[in-house]
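User: Okay, second chain of the day. Same drill as before: sequence in, structure tokens out.
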Amino acid sequence: MLDRLALRIVKPATDAAATWLAARGVTANQVTLAGFGFGLAAAVLIAAGFTAAAILPLLINRTLDGIDGALARLTRPSERGAFLDLALDFLFYAAIPLAFAAQDPTANALAAAVLLAAFLATGTSFLAFAVMAEKRGLKSTAYPSKSFYYLGGLTEGTETIACFVIMCAWPQYFAFIAYAYGALCVVTTATRLYAGWRMFD
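Assistant: Same drill. Structure tokens below.
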């Protein structure tokens, strides 16, 4: 829901960073892999109980995720890079709830499982729509810089990162936050299924 606004706000900074990196020969795939490394570091810190310390690498992960796309557009966008970026994003999103479950299985495991199931539902509906849109040659006017049809919803990347930061800041409320955000993900899934049902015949 907030991704378009967030992208518009951070675009000048990400474009400037991408220009600086491109001048030094850094590739978009290198930035993608570095970002994923920070994401895994955040998950490890969460699992070890250092949730507040995980906020910084978590935010660095998302910052680099914005820069890699801008860098690719400055140099040479590739299907390999788009695939790597999307696949590692999904792995990162799965790693954070799993890390909370590992930190305190008794208190967090069920809530983490519910949130992961909700993420699976939103991700499946997102990718299924993108596949069908690609077959029809459709492009998203809301997210023209994306390499595939990006179907938004109530719970997009911006909201998910905000949710993760809140979880890290107040880990004692992880279960409540996970159930609440999982419910919002169900709404997103329903709207995406409806959109696909209406658009495709």
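The domain at 3-199 is CATH 1.20.120.1760 (Four Helix Bundle (Hemerythrin (Met), subunit A)).

User: Thanks, on to the next one.
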